[in-house]
Amino acid sequence: MPLSLVGLTACGSDDTTSGRPTVVTTTAILGAVVSDVVGDAAEVVVLVPNGVDPHDWEPSAQDIESLNQADLVVANGLDLEEKLVEALDSAESSGAPVFHATDHIQPLEGDPHFWTDPLAMAAVVAALGDQLAAIGVDLSDRVDRVITDLKDVDGVITQLLSSLPEDRRVLVTGHDSLGYFAEHFGFTLVGSIIPSLSSAADVTAQNLSEMKAAIDETGAPVIFTELGTPTDVADALADETGTRVVELATHLVPDDGLYRSFLLNLASDIVAALSATS
Asked: In Å, what is the CA distance from 264 to each residue of 101, 146, 259?
């Protein structure tokens, strides 16, 4: 089963004519996966627009109303949606069922960026199936198929990454966003331009000095930037260290709407960048 965004709707729409329950997801990546799990059994609404940094996005009054009216809210958790946390807490306190994805994995020191590990997402999908059943939507067969597909993607990515030698498995990132990818697929995290789990944090001169030394020591050939990375800082650091800057789409579901494609694109872009000789 392809993991896709088919069937997703913009925030603020409803499904009162069909009588289907509404599942509100905070991010497009969660929306892609949830949409595959529920199929036509529910309407999926995404709050944070695809390709927008969830660390920096602010909800509107309509977004907050969507949370309060949802039959189920699927949130990332661990404060990824920084400016939505208060509204999520309020909706949950008022009785809205809120599923926190990161409650169902082994988090890495409070890191919310679990979606770069397909097996972590598989654990989330398994728990989501139980939550959907609790609101009267039994989709056990679809849940099993999505989990099988995630395990298949994991194998494909593992094979793709096998071409990289050990000394090339090093990651310099925009902020601390690839911890799960590194842990699961066997990479070393050299450091981040923004030394934080949030892209909204500040760059510091001390961290940049440490980053320069770490890049020189490890021979990391690439600085991977992403949403929220200050490009001028990344370019200056690359000039000083003789590295290249490559942008990764760490928060963007591709045009085909497939979460599978997101994972494969991410892995392919990392392999291509780290394999290049100049």
From this structure: 21, 16, 9
Q: What is the CATH number of the domain that holds 203?
A: 3.40.50.1980
pTM above 0.85, yes or no: yes
Based on the fold, state whether residues 75 and 185 are members of the same structural domain.
Answer: no
| Domain final residue, candidates 150, 177, 197 | 150
Does residue 9 contact residue 260 with C-beta atoms inside 8 Å? no
Give the rounded distance of the alpha carbon of 188 from its chain centre: 19
Domain for residue 145, yes or no? yes
Residues 42 and 90 reside in one and the same domain: yes
Task: Report the number of distinct structural domains present in the chain.
Answer: 2
- How would you write the pLDDT of the chain (278 residues) with one tens digit per residue? 444 444 444 443 444 446 899 999 999 999 999 999 999 999 999 999 999 989 889 999 999 999 999 999 999 999 999 899 999 999 999 999 999 999 999 999 999 999 999 999 999 999 999 999 988 888 999 999 999 999 999 999 999 999 999 999 999 999 899 999 999 999 999 999 998 888 877 888 999 999 999 999 999 999 999 988 999 999 999 999 999 999 999 999 999 888 999 999 999 999 999 998 65
